[in-house]
Specification:
The chain is 61% helix and 0% strand. It has nine helices and no strands. The relative contact order is 0.15.
């Protein structure tokens, strides 16, 4: 009986540790589900459901060189957070592709990911936001296929996150402070936008 109780206590302790690790340092999870105009919802849905993989295309040799220099530098900076070189390479390629596809600076997206999840693919906030960019599951119902488990897929998560931030920027007429506040569910308050901007500067080169 005592051994069963000890095993039960150990299991509860392990579960508590895993939950703390999983939820640590997540900043989002309070994105608001709000009414969207039909045109906005349709545009977001089309962006999300474009199944093409992140194949990089370059308009010039200069653009290709910019990618190579950026990816080499970012790979070095990310090494301690993502030790596996193949995962790191795929992650950076996807960040580059999805951020530019949404008209965002890759360094801004990296800064947001740092604040949101600390670069942890399976991070979950206390409110249930998931993955690198801490996307709330309701978005899969609003503009996706209703399968929130897919938010743990690298490209799916980054596509949702970048598309949602782009939408907020458009709704706020380019005001990054307000757009970041909406992304975090804290529109008008300075703490979250300040954190993301500081992280953004650190990822610029």
């Amino acid at each position: 009986m005592r051994s069963e109780r000890s095993a039960f206590c150990a299991a509860r302790w392990l579960l508590a540790v895993l939950l703390c690790v999983n939820c640590h340092n997540t900043q989002a999870g309070n994105q608001k589900e709000e009414a969207l105009a039909d045109a906005v919802r349709l545009a977001l849905s089309r962006a999300i459901n474009d199944a093409r993989p992140p194949q990089l295309e370059f308009s010039s040799y200069e653009d290709r060189d910019a990618w190579r220099q950026w990816s080499a530098l970012m790979s070095t900076r990310l090494q301690s957070r993502m030790p596996d070189p193949m995962i790191r390479s795929e992650f950076l390629q996807t960040v580059w592709y999805e951020s530019r596809r949404a008209g965002l600076e890759p360094a801004l997206v990296l800064g947001l990911i740092q604040v949101e999840s600390g670069f942890r693919k399976y991070a979950i906030s206390s409110a249930g936001a998931r993955g690198y960019m801490q996307v709330m599951p309701f978005w899969t119902r609003t503009i996706g296929d209703g399968q929130p488990a897919k938010l743990f897929n690298m490209q799916t998560n980054l596509r949702y996150g970048c598309s949602i931030l782009r939408m907020y920027l458009d709704l706020e007429k380019g005001n990054l402070f307000l757009a970041l506040g909406r992304y975090n569910g804290s529109r008008g308050r300075a703490e979250y936008p300040t954190l993301v901007r500081a992280a953004w500067r650190r990822w610029q080169h």
